[in-house]
Amino acid sequence: MSLSTHAKTQQSFIRLPPTPPDLLDGLDKNVDSENIEVALHVLSVERDTLSNLHDLYLSDRVAQRSFNLAVNAINRSWSRGGRVIVTGVGKSGKIGKKFVATLNSLAIRSAFLHPTEAMHGDLGMVGPAFGVPAPTSSTTAALALTDALTLAVARRLHSDPKRVFLLHHPGGAIGARMAPTGPQLMADISIKVQDVPVVTPRLVQEGADIQDAILTAARSVSGWVRPSPETVISPRQIQRLGCRANLSQPLSLIAPEIAVEEVDWISIEAANSVQEARDWIRRMRQSSRGKTFLKRGTIIGTVDAQRCKSGVVEIESILSEEELVD
After folding, report:
1. Which among 4, 93, 181, 185 counts the fewest CB atoms within 10 Å?
2. What is the rounded distance in angstroms from the CA atom of residue 208 to the CA atom of residue 238?
């Protein structure tokens, strides 16, 4: 799969490089006009590059089909537990690394593979369900096209790409701009039950095993899984599963140890603030009875306006693990 922008385009898309634009009358007389002239010329060329790329995908069926194939290939790889391997050298390699960072910000598993290192052992990271794109063409066009591809894939994989991005990119100016204003609510940190995937066995004729649960969690945006429609396994319990020696052990044998049924989730209204929930848990844990059901591994079920448990939260996401020490 190549991210080529199809250099051979229709004649109507080909434009000669623009001449340097006239300098503005208001140009500061204390600056070197030639520097500004060069900057304006380069920006004009880059602007036309993006304009040509827009026209290409607006009218060229080959480009449209290639883009659609790329989206489908990444989606198919993701659904099979694979990831996107991006490769490239020089400036294309730099664009490839940025592409990987953007994909990972949207929980689309990816990694960068240097072509030279691939011949010295790193090729082992590529599996049968992995896709390998290589950015080509100008850096401006490649950056724009990989961003477009990432967002198109995210739209297919996630019901709420913006929320997924915020979960994986909480810091910096972008995270601050996307974060909800005002007190953080329980609804903001809970994972929708409908978005938690049910563990499916690799072999239909056999029941699910530990490896199936781990693979399902790897494909899950949140890391949560459901061994059955009425039970959930949290990300922390999934991490502990990975330490078990026998990954082929039937999940049904250990599910009672790590899965929590819906009737055992502790209900807190989704409209409550996280601070309110934290204060309530602290008050309840002051009694011995409260410590018996508000402890490490407890699942909080957020209750919506219809009084249904529509989301799940690990208690460790509300209180620090130090506070949960018995």
Report:
1. 181
2. 14
Mean pLDDT of 155-180: 61
- Residue of 235, 229, 303 whose CA lies nearest to 261: 229
**Phi and psi at residue 291, to the nearest 5°:** -70, -20
Which letter does DSSP use for residue 131 in this model?
A: B
- Which residues are bridge partners to 2 per DSSP? 134
Instruction: Name the residue among 41, 51, 50, 53 with its Cα closest to residue 17.
Output: 41
Which of 301, 232, 233 is CA-nearest to residue 272? 301
Beta strands (DSSP E) in 217-322 are: 225-228, 231-233, 260-261, 266-269, 299-303, 309-314
Q: What is the CB neighbour count within 10 angstroms for residue 149?
A: 22
Structure tokens at 52: 């040509």
> CB of 86 within 8 A of CB of 133?
yes
User: Rounded to whole angstroms, what are the CA distances from 251 to 200, 205, 208, 269?
Assistant: 11, 15, 6, 31
User: Helix (H) and strand (E) counts for the chain?
Assistant: 13, 9
**Cβ contact 49:138 at 8 Å:** yes
Output b/e per residue, 164-198; b: 16+ Cβ within 10 A: bbbbebeeeeeeeeeeeeeeebbbbbbbbbebbee
Q: Is the pTM of this model over 0.85?
A: no
What residues pair up with 185 in beta bridges, in sequence order? 273
Over the stretch 75-112, which tens digit does the pLDDT of each residue have? 888 777 778 888 888 888 898 899 988 888 887 888 88
**8's tokens:** 């051979």
**C-alpha 189 chain-centroid distance:** 16
State how far the Cα of 256 lies from the Cα of 171, in Å rounded to an integer. 37
Give the pLDDT confidence score for residue 5 in this predicted structure: 42
Residue type present at position 60: D
